[in-house]
Specification:
Helix content of chain A is 30%, strand content 24%. Chain A has 175 residues and is an alpha/beta fold. Chain B has 213 residues and is an alpha+beta fold. Chain B is built from 8 helices and 10 strands. Classes of the chains: A alpha/beta (175), B alpha+beta (213).
């Protein structure tokens, strides 16, 4: 079967590579390089991250976009024809929210792609709740989920939420 | 006696403030190094009308031109003190209000720059009943037909012939008051049954996966 594509986007340091790692069945193919500007960490993704998830025999390619704005020409290429978009933002870093909203609105206003916003680092004591982030983004609360990108279960729940929203189905389990 | 000079030495806001309650025509040309020409008709503290080579400017275009003049690095000017002819497109704006508005927009444009939407992000009408002040009202009236179906700052700047950053600024302000919201392109598409079936299949597989890990 033709592989599907899921795109993970968000500002620098939102946890995109970690999110893909926690879902991927293969070691993530990274394109890390030394950061050429002060972005709060030494290395960052410059082209894309790639992982693979297989669901019911359907291969899903997981693509992570670079977070720095100077690589934004890659966003459109990756999102074109995607099954869905997961926009990640670090809940302990409100300075990144305008940037995250900018990316989300740019992509979702131009590409007919279902999406969910994931607020990472929910394991930290001082962090914005998904509901508060939803209010900032002007989104329905159910479209924003809190998650810990290092946890496969937590990352899977974000995908479940996105598919629930597009199918109209509700998760019967306990989050 | 003549009043003349260049906007790089005497910015527009200083010039208009200095002209105060005088009546006459302020001719400004070669603004920002371009071949252009604007005439501002001043009458006892009021800006009566503005013209460019194409004719009288409507309020939205007039305000946009004032912003351009206020931020222009260069532009020759000359003031002719005469009783200005009544134009067919009257603005009749008190000059002190014009100065306040222009400086406010100028400052806000600079401070909001990092928050302004991407030129390609599409917006659409979200509410009709919100009350607006100038200059947002004039922009809204012109942009509304285009925003009904969704338009980006790039689209609007091109169709309304306004500077891109000014349109981004107006969209940002309209968004703050809830008048526009970003388009969600997925919601505009017709739901494909085949794709919905695939989504359900993937959802079921994810639920099993979640339960098993």
């Amino acid at each position: 079967m033709k592989p599907l594509k899921l795109v993970v986007s968000g500002p620098v340091g939102a946890g995109k590579t970690t999110f893909i790692s926690s879902l991927s069945e293969i070691p993530v193919v990274e394109t890390d390089e030394l950061a050429s500007e002060d972005i709060g960490k030494e290395r960052t993704t410059v082209a894309l991250d790639f992982g693979l998830l297989t669901l019911d025999g359907v291969p899903i390619h997981l693509f992570g976009t670079p977070g720095q704005e100077r690589f934004d020409f890659v966003w459109d290429i990756l999102v074109e024809g995607a099954l869905g978009l997961v926009l990640l933002v670090a809940g302990d870093s409100p300075k990144d929210f305008p940037k995250a909203r900018h990316i989300l609105e740019y992509l979702t206003s131009r590409h007919p792609v279902p999406f969910v916003v994931g607020v990472t680092r929910q394991d930290l004591p001082r962090v914005w709740t998904p509901e508060d982030v939803a209010d900032y983004f002007g989104l329905p609360h159910e479209q924003v989920v809190g998650l810990n990108a290092t946890s496969p279960t937590s990352s899977t729940l974000a995908l479940i939420r996105m598919l629930e929203l597009v199918t109209g189905e509700k998760w019967q389990g306990v989050y | 006696m003549a009043i003349f000079g260049d906007l790089q030495d005497m910015p527009l806001v200083d010039l208009l403030s200095m002209l105060g309650r005088r009546s006459g025509l302020l001719d400004v040309w070669d603004v920002g190094g371009k071949r252009n020409r604007y005439i501002l008709a001043l009458d006892r503290g009021n800006l009566l009308w503005m013209k460019d080579e194409g004719g009288y400017l409507d309020p939205l275009k007039a305000r946009s031109t004032l912003l351009e003049l206020a931020s222009a690095g260069r532009g020759a000017f000359e003031f002719t003190p005469i009783e200005p002819p009544k134009g067919s497109s009257l603005l009749n704006w008190p000059i002190e209000r014009v100065l306040l508005s222009v400086t406010t927009i100028h400052d806000e444009l600079a401070s909001y720059n990092s928050l302004l939407p991407d030129p390609k992000t599409r917006f659409q009408v979200a509410a009709l009943e919100v009350w607006l002040e100038e200059p947002l009202y004039s922009f809204w009236e012109r942009a509304k037909p285009l925003l009904q179906t969704g338009a980006s700052a790039e689209d609007l700047a091109s169709r309304l012939r306004l500077p891109l950053d000014e349109v981004r600024y107006y969209l940002h302000k309209l968004r703050l008051v809830g008048k526009v919201a970003p388009v969600r392109a997925y919601e505009e598409t017709r739901k494909d049954e085949e794709k919905q079936g695939l989504f359900r299949r993937l959802l079921a597989a994810l639920r099993v996966r979640r339960g098993g890990r």
